[in-house]
Every structure is written in structure tokens, then in C-alpha cells.
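Reviewer comment 2.1 asked that we show a complete input and output for one of the modelled complexes. We chose the adenosine-5'-diphosphate case, as it is the one discussed in the main text.
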Amino acid sequence: MTTSAPAIRVTDLRKTYGAFAAVDGISFEIEPGETFALLGPNGAGKSTTVEILEGYRERSGGDVSVLGSDPRHATLEWKARIGIVLQQTGESGNVTVREQLTHFASLYPRPRDVDEVLAAVGLEQKAKTRIKSLSGGQRRRVDVALGVIGRPELLFLDEPTTGFDPEARRQFWELIRSLSREGTTIVLTTHYLDEAAQLSDRAAVIAAGRLIDIGPVDELGSTEARVPIVRWRDGQGGHERRTAEPARLVAELAAALGEPVDLEVIRPSLEDVYLELVASVEEVAA
Ligand SMILES: Nc1ncnc2c1ncn2[C@@H]1O[C@H](COP(=O)(O)OP(=O)(O)O)[C@@H](O)[C@H]1O
Ligand SMILES: [Mg+2]
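Response of the prediction step:
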């Protein structure tokens, strides 16, 4: 395999259920070592897309190459190079966390150390607990642990941190960053825009089965959507103005009003940009 070949190449991917197109002609590439986020509202087609890439779902059309192979013809060797955390699993069962991890580790040629993985997902204290006795968030951590135990080159994470408390999410981010530093290619779908902004190099936004934007996280959306907003209050009430030169506006306000009340300079977050993007698609569809 040459290093310049993309880890994933998707060309005009389509998935239909009867007359309904869940994925309606999507194309993108993901480079080796990249952390790539797939964003979009519920029902956009994110899980359908990643499940096709994982070899879990048949596609209706288009071409897909994942680590140089078509997931339709997945071999055991190919599967061993890929880690998967599905949107819905919630491992349950009578075995303990350590037993489950040890069992999965034995299936791979070059697994990670079980204790290291337990620590990375914050389950050291639960190693001897039966999985069925864990909370929902803890079971989700088991899913993540099982996704990474085989030391995958490519890791798919479909809403991995849903149900995590804030501390667990921070821990999980550290894990993802360390996997990324080791060179793992990561495909992440998430509802948390801050998570995508923290972790990913590039992101794609999909809505209604179509790709509406793709690029580095800090370049998504229109230039206009990323222009800072200045807010302040005076005798007439609240004001808000978008300007590429917020310092100049603030200086003018200070000269005219003294210290403006409730002064704020806001740089639109990925969430703001994303909401504007998705709203523009919904307007066209309406
Ligand atoms: N097996 C199925 N049969 C019919 N429709 C489905 C099936 N699976 C998914 N869909 C539909 O496809 C669309 C995309 O679903 P999905 O990929 O799960 O969205 P996302 O992960 O972005 O929330 C949704 O409208 C969903 O209802
Ligand atoms: Mg989904």
C-alpha cells in the first residue's frame, strides 16, 4: 500500500430504501492519519454512510474503497485493521469487563494491552464488574474499549460519547488524541459540535443524504457566517452588529458611550456555523 493513497474514498455513494434515498450521491476522501467528523441532523444519513464503509450495510450505488478494499468483499485481514463503535450496541452480558476485553484482544494479531485500554476509557475500577451491571455510560465505554482493543489502523466512532458525563467526555477526547498521535485514522460522527471542533482535522456536513459542506473545521460554512458579532446595550435596548473589525467597533462605542453595558464580542462557534448551514438547506427544501 502506498502512503499517498487515501484511507477512504467514497464516490457518488447511494443508499435507497424503496423510493427513499437515505444517502443521495455523496463523495469524499479521508487521508491516512486524519480525524474526520461527519456532522448532520438526525436522519441525515451519517450512520448509513459509515455502516456501508464498515461493511455492515449494502450500498445501492457508487464506489467505496476503505484501506484499499471494497467493504463488500471484506476479508478477515481487512476486518482486523478496522475498529468499529456502532451507534447502537450497549454490550451486555454475564462476563466481566476484563473478561470481555481479554476475549476480544485474543481475536486480533496485535492487540493493545487490556489494562492500558481499561485505563484509557476510565474503567479500571470496573474491570471485575459484570457488563450487565454497568450504567449506560459505562457500557458505552466498553463499546469504545472493544473498538480500540485490536489496535486498528482505522477507527469508526458513531456517536461514541452519547450518555457520557462531561468528565468522561474529556477522558475520551484524550484517548482519541493519543490514538491520533499514533497515526490512527478516525471517522467520528457526533452531535456535539464542540467535540468535532476539538478533535477533528476536517469535517463534512450532510443533510438529507447529501453533502452540503466539507473542509477544515475552522473553514466550514460561509465566510459571512464566521464574521464576529458585537453585542451591547444602551438606553434604547440591546444591539447586535456583525463586523470583521470588532476592535474598531468597540473603540467607536467606547468613544460614544463610555463603557458599553453588557458588551460582548462573539466569534461564531462551529455550532453557530453548522446551524446556519443546515438551516439554509432546510429553507431550500421547504
Ligand atoms: N433499514 C432501514 N429502512 C428504511 N429506512 C431506513 C433504514 N435505516 C435507516 N433508514 C432511514 O435512513 C435515513 C438515514 O438514517 P441514518 O443513516 O441512521 O441517519 P443519521 O445517522 O444521520 O441520524 C433516516 O431517514 C432513516 O429513517
Ligand atoms: Mg446515526
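The pocket of adenosine-5'-diphosphate (ligand 1) is lined by residues 17, 22, 40, 42-48 (CB under 6 Å). We note this here for comparison with the apo prediction described in Section 3.2.
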